[in-house]
Amino acid sequence: MYVDLLELEQYRNYERLSLKFDPGITILYGDNAQGKTNILEALYLCATTKSHRGSRDKELIRFGQEEAHIKMYLVRHEVRHRIDLHLKKSKSKGVAIDGQPIKKNGELFGFLHMIFFSPEDLSIIKNGPAERRRFLDLELCQLNKLYYYNYTNYNKALNQRNALLKQISFKPSLKDTLDLWDQYLAEYGRCLIEERERFIESLNDILKEIHRQLTGDKESLSIGYEKNVSVEEYEKAMRDRRETDLKYQSTQTGPHRDDISFLVNGIDVRKFGSQGQQRTAALSLKLAEIEIVKKLIHDTPVLLLDDVMSELDSSRKQYLLDSIREVQTIVSCTGYDDFIRSRLMIDRIYRVENGRLEEITV
Ligand code: ATP
Ligand code: MG
Predict the structure, then answer these.
(1) Residue 342's pLDDT is what?
(2) Residue 214: predicted pLDDT
(3) Any idea what the CATH number is for the domain that residue 8 is in?
(4) How far is the CA of 38 from the centre of ligand 2 (A)?
(5) Fewer CB in 10 Å around end: N or C, the chain?
(6) Does 133 map to a domain?
(7) Could you tell me if the CB of 133 is within 6 A of ligand 1?
(8) What is the pLDDT of residue 314?
(9) Is residue 313 part of a domain?
(10) Domain that holds residue 323
(11) Ligand 1 pocket check for 10: Cβ under 6 Å
């Protein structure tokens, strides 16, 4: 699949924009703060209804405006489709596929698959478990509608239970209602654990080989699922830790406490890895993500590379460029020399300047 055209109206620093993409590589280059990431963010929004940086809808609307529109044309199994997003300041957004409004944002998931790769992804191993869980959830929600359903319900139930734990401290009679929330959490939580387990296992197989090649056979990488609780012990663990939950007024058990471990030559790189080792392992993870998505969706995803090239040394850069040959890639960067050096064919290049784009011929 590939994105053909993006149209923006009153979105971020764009008053109006119509931008054509190449099915191969499109490069957006320009100085800082000109609007490169804003374009990648708009594309990601069309695939997931969410901003990759977690911005709220009203922040996406151009300063001083009430609404914004994003329109994206894409080609999927040789058929052209349109996705419309209508962002409003104080109401929830409207989303339509081929002119048909969708009722729940989840309906859009999986329609087109985007992978966002930013310099922050290279810190995923150095950073805390929340970011590693975010990696799992963003990917699994796009891959699997059922996961998205369980994930949203799990989080709703978790918020309700945590609110209840607070209320119980001044109204102890509410304690009995905890059982019901425990049941919900166990039901949705189990599905999340099973899917995460499967996903990490398949990712591990692919990632091992990528990492071996990336490090010239020097390192062997494996990832593991560090689950907070197993499917079998879920309900018992909830019961056993109930008093602790009441004391801390928050739920201590469940997949919202999961993590992924990264072992390089048997050593936990989260704790003991050098910065370079951590970043290379993160790159392997991201490359493995592209491969696994290709395999699972029987199509190619669209890759959004936000300024990552400048973060990699020349051999890693070359490896990345070699891995994305068949995937539509939209790249933001402050200079495009690397691409000219590494690619036989340059597809499309735009210069981004203060919310305006100009096509460059090389
Ligand atoms: P860098 O190379 O530093 O990453 P960039 O080209 O990726 O820069 P963006 O993040 O795309 O930059 O754009 C940032 C610009 O967009 C900033 O100048 C910011 O003020 C502007 N901007 C962000 N949100 C809005 C908005 N809602 N309305 C108008 N302008 C906005
Ligand atoms: Mg940027």
Answers:
(1) 66
(2) 93
(3) 3.40.50.300
(4) 7
(5) C
(6) yes
(7) no
(8) 85
(9) yes
(10) 1-113+300-362
(11) no
State the SS3 of 75-99: EECCEEEEEEEEEECCCCCEEEECC
The predicted pLDDT at position 359 comes to 95
Q: Best substitution site from 13, 29, 63, 304 to test ligand 1's pocket, by max atoms within 8 Å of Cβ? A: 13
* 118 lies in some domain: no
Ligand with minimal distance to 68 CA: 1
Give the pair of three-digit tokens for residue 296.
Answer: 């699972």
Ligand 1 within 6 A of CB of 32: yes
Contacts (Cβ under 8 Å, ≥6 apart) of 65: 10
Over residues 123-182, the pLDDT tens digits come to 999 999 999 999 999 999 999 999 999 999 999 999 999 999 999 999 999 999 999 999
Cut 0.85: pTM above it: yes
Same domain, 279 and 139: yes
Those residues of the chain that have pLDDT short of 70 are 341-346
* 81 and 146 both lie in a single domain: no
- Count up the domains in the chain and report the number: 2
At 324 the pLDDT is 87
